[in-house]
Amino acid sequence: LSGYYAQLVHYTNDSFAKNELLTVIKITNFKKDTMIRHIKSFAKNQVRCLLIIVDDSEELSDDVFSAVSLIKVPIMFITSKYISKLDYDNLYVDEHRGITMGLEHLIQKGYKQIGFIGEDQTLGRYHVYNKVMQSFGMHINKDFIKISKKRAEEGGYYCMKEILKQNKYPDAIFASYDSMAIGAIHAIEEASLRIPEDIAILGFDDILISKY
C-alpha cells in the first residue's frame, strides 16, 4: 500500500476498533472486476458496514452499484472527485482546489516553468494541472510532462530521470502524489542538483513522510 492508502487503513482501523469492530481489507489493484468480486464476497459475509475507496482510474459503473445494492449495511465511498448521482455517503478529494492552491504557491514564489510527473492512475490530476496552468496564463512545456506506467517512488524516479536527460529542465515539478515526489527527489539529488534552488518539488496527499 502507498502511504496515502496506508493512512486511510490506519485511521479506519482505529475508528472501527473503538466500536469493537474488526477490519477486513480487500485490495482491488484498481481493477473494476476485482472490486465487484470483493463487494459480492462481503455481501455473503456478516459485515456491519463497508468503506469503499475508489481511485481516479476506477470506474463506478452500474455493475458496481448493482453489487453494492446486495449489501444491506451502511456504506461510505471515498472518491477522487465529487459524484453527484451517488446515493451513498461520499467523502471526496477536491483535487481541483488542492492543485490550484499548490500551483498558485509555486507561481507566487516566482517559478515560471512548472512541469508535471504522474502515472496512469493519476491522469485526472494531470488534466486538472493543465486547466489550472492555463487559467493562470502559464506556458506548458510538453518536454517537462512525463507520465509513466511505473508507480510510486519508482515512477517518480523514472519520470524525473527522463526530464533530466534533456538539455534544459523546469524550475519546478508538480508530482501527482507524494510517493512520486520522493522518487523525483532521489533522481534530482543523483544529478547533483539542489532542491529547491535548481528544481522545486510540489507533492500531493500530505503523507506522513512528506514533512521531512
Written description of the protein model:
By secondary structure, the chain is an alpha/beta fold. Helices cover 42% and strands 14% of the residues. The strands form two sheets. The chain has a four-stranded parallel sheet, with helices on both faces. It has a three-stranded parallel sheet with strand order 1-2-3, with no helix packed on it. α5 (123-135) links the parallel β4 and β5. α2 (32-44) runs parallel beside α3 (62-68) and α6 (152-164) crosses α7 (178-190). The model has no long low-confidence stretch (mean pLDDT 90).
| Helix content percent band | 40-55%
C-alpha end-to-end distance: 20 Å
Number of strands: 7
Largest sheet: 4 strands, parallel
Helix segment tally? 7
Instruction: List the strand order in the largest sheet.
Output: 5-4-6-7
Q: How large is the radius of gyration?
A: 19 Å
Helix-and-strand structural type: alpha/beta
What's the order of the H and E elements?
Answer: HHEHEEHEHEHEHE
User: Which residues form runs of ≥5 with pLDDT under 50?
Assistant: none
**Any idea what the shape is?**
elongated
What's the overall average pLDDT, rounded? 90
Strand content: 5-15%
